[in-house]
Write a structure and sequence with these properties.
Two copies of one chain form a homodimer. The first copy, chain A, is about 35% helix and about 25% strand.
């Protein structure tokens, strides 16, 4: 038994090797398995149940704002991909090409969608004619393919699951509002469902989406001080509409081009959760997306009445949370380790003495704090404890991010921080691409975003010393 | 206005051209749009909302029986596809091949999954070692690709959405039970969610799935007398396990091969619903999967109090069904035609006189029957009427199927029926593949299934006259 416990727990510690710790958690918590297809992953039941919770919550937020789900083909003819020049330049180098159907060579090769702007535009052209047809507020849940060289589970894989919103509006103003609204939805989701603080801001021209006029992003800071782009929202203006000849008759009977947005989040969010909350005992899940929120472990379950009482507690709790009673013949110690590895927020220990005292012991995953709860108060106390737990995770992550955010006023300071202190670096910037490139070269950092919440660190560019226009977040990123 | 009504209603009648009627409904009810990618379709919001309802109900049925969702890669390396001989022979001629990633040619080409048995086996080999690891009850919702020559929306397209269940069991007996259980789940779903009667049975060896020991099917009869295979469940024995070297240690510490099943249904079910219940006014949807179950159309809505009352009725009904209030500036006549086209089960007409009488008029989509319902009884009466409506659709479809099912005792009779009477033909069969091929050649029919419910039509094979072993359903099929 001791051996089994050790087996479950044997993951590399974060400090020893963060990358190894990460993949250990992915495998040992049974989130993924590697596939025979290089660079692709198998999402196992426990990992997929997390994704289903993410989908359910996010899909509800989208629908509440009037978005509808659709499904577009997974293939894009090469000629269609090429219609918007910047877009094809950005994506063509990393798409997978289908060249044969059965034994026959195709007349035109098809790429497996890396993103679906081109398909949506082609469809919009068919169905949008009058201002009465606008807005179109569409979303799609699907998988996309990008032929990456280096891959890691959830963070960067050749195929990944995502949602991509695509909307079309009568005016630029309306499209801009949508772009901003959806970024706010992502930020709210990150905070409320993932207990993950994010910085909201705009990408520089260098970092924006291929074909977009403006890209907005939410950036999170991982345990190791690297940044993770966790969701993006793009404003296209009428660039795609023009390229695809999408037009509508406005109220004054004039033919005009509509304005467009797209926005997306991916299974990468699961990677974000692992690296935001996880610890050396494994995964730590925020309650909103945890497949199991409470695991009940009976103690001395051979004793009379223990299993019966545990079943009763389980049935009671089913009304207020996702609960699992583990009646298996493993030892309590094995079960404790198992549910810690899987990041279950709370475990309930229930033994003969607890039953005698009409109580149970609730143990928090994050700090192993023990809370005694009366069996009569379960349906009110457990939701309260889960809410407190969510807040505790959020606050801890926020505190860490704040402790790992540094201001740099000179290039030397920037390099010094980048070399020695993992985290976000805030610094002023003149707006020139050249300085962005140089900071990458010298300090190894990329611009993460121009945050909406600006504050002045100085008035000159950290790189060239010319007049600064904006404060940026910089960092090393996944 | 008259023009608008006509525009909405202008679909080909079933009798004139059934195939054209079908695609007209798909387009005019806004279920699909054609895509630039030949043979693929765009599923529009109304069509996708139907699929979401199908998914939600079916997924619940799967999970209740202990199945878990996973996600496998969409690509299968050629060498992996080739591991099971019959399987690759069946599928290789109709798969799409990815040969390039970005600008580079791949070392080994990948097919876009036509089905995922090979991927699941490869994964099972990694994760199954002991009898304690069994059973594995997995399901996946995804899209698959089969490079078909002739395509039709929902019925046969190069890419389609589906669910594929894949389970692994310790014994043949358990796997057989699972195969049968899931066929029963499909039949129950067809009847309870789609109001569609089906014949349950086994496929002949000629018609079974590539690589299966036995394939079971539910077969439905469409309005035009053609059969539609609507869901299949396969028993693989240990064939795949052997080919992929999946083994486990049983309770006696012996290494043995587990037994396997798979089962699937697709967006084809939407086609089945269209052709089972639809009429010359458009789609007719069973309530369980209808995105809108009740459409409220205010009459003389400029009169005082009408919109307010309609809103009140809508809010009341939201508690018991999916309801939409149409306050747009179209005429009631336009709206009637629109919701008929979209197959909304019930519409509620509410005008000043109805309000005076504290009632509303409920109109059924199928027969336009008008039912007066007191505004005080809405939350009990509407669910009742929806339930009656479901039963009416089911019974009508069942009666039609029975009226279109014929018994044939000789080859001449078979040909005579096949040429003149669209529908199912029941006839005895000796079990020889030769007779099956001959019936296809002479009468143009294929074997649909060997029904579980056998009844003797004679004792000799309808084709060769030798001793018959089974009664079969035959027919022309989609």
């Amino acid at each position: 038994m001791a051996k089994q416990e050790k087996l479950v727990k044997s993951i590399t510690s974060m400090d020893e090797d963060f990358a190894k710790w990460y993949t250990d958690v992915c495998i040992k918590a049974e989130l993924i398995d590697y596939a025979s297809v290089k660079g692709c992953m198998i999402i196992r039941p426990y990992g997929y149940a997390i994704w289903e919770n993410i989908q359910r919550i996010m899909d509800g937020m989208f629908k509440e704002l009037g978005h509808e789900n659709v499904y577009m083909p997974m293939f894009i003819p090469e000629s269609l991909l090429q219609k918007e020049k910047d877009h094809v330049e950005g994506f063509a180098p990393e798409v997978a090409w289908v060249t044969h159907g059965g034994a026959e060579e195709l007349e035109e090769r098809l790429c497996v969608r890396p993103t679906s702007e081109t398909l949506f535009c082609d469809h919009f052209k068919n169905i949008v004619h009058s201002y009465r047809d606008l807005p179109k507020l569409y979303n799609q849940w699907c998988s996309v393919v990008r032929w990456e060289k280096t891959t890691r589970p959830f963070l960067r894989s050749r195929e990944f699951l995502w949602q991509e919103g695509h909307t079309l509006h009568a005016t630029a103003e309306e499209a801009r509002q949508e772009t901003e609204q959806m970024l706010n939805v992502y930020a709210r989701f990150a905070e409320e469902a993932l207990a993950m603080p994010v910085v909201k801001g705009q990408k520089t021209d260098k970092e924006k989406f291929a074909g977009a006029e403006a890209t907005y992003t939410i950036e999170a800071l991982m345990h190791d001080g690297k940044a993770l782009q966790s969701g993006t929202s793009h404003y296209f203006g009428d660039g795609f509409s023009r390229a695809f000849e999408v037009q509508y008759t406005d109220k004054d009977n004039k033919l005009v081009h509509p304005h467009q947005t797209s926005w997306g989040t991916t299974t990468r969010l699961i990677g974000a959760v692992i690296m935001t909350h996880g610890d050396d005992n494994g995964l730590v899940l925020p309650p909103a997306i945890a497949p199991i929120q409470v695991a009940i472990v009976p103690i001395a379950s051979h004793k009379e009445g223990v299993v019966e009482k545990a079943t009763e507690v389980c049935d009671t709790l089913k009304k207020v949370c996702r609960v699992k009673l583990d009646n298996s013949d493993q030892t309590p110690g094995w079960k404790f380790a198992e549910y810690e590895m899987k990041g279950v927020p709370l475990r309930i220990e229930l033994g003969p003495r607890d039953i005698e005292n009409n109580q149970c012991v609730v143990v928090r995953r994050d700090n192993r704090e023990k809370i005694f709860v009366s069996l009569d108060e379960l349906t009110t106390r457990i939701p309260e404890i889960l809410a407190e737990y969510h807040d505790a995770l959020y606050n801890k992550a926020l505190e860490r991010r704040e402790a790992m955010t540094y201001d740099a006023k000179s290039l030397e300071e920037m390099k010094e921080i980048a070399d020695n202190k993992p985290g976000f670096i805030r610094a002023m910037w003149c707006g020139d691409r050249e300085c962005e490139d140089k900071l990458k070269e010298i300090a190894g950092v990329t611009s993460r975003c121009i945050p909406f919440e600006q504050h002045e660190i100085g008035d000159t560019c950290v790189c060239c010393g010319k007049k600064a226009t904006k404060m940026l977040y910089w960092g090393k990123a996944y």
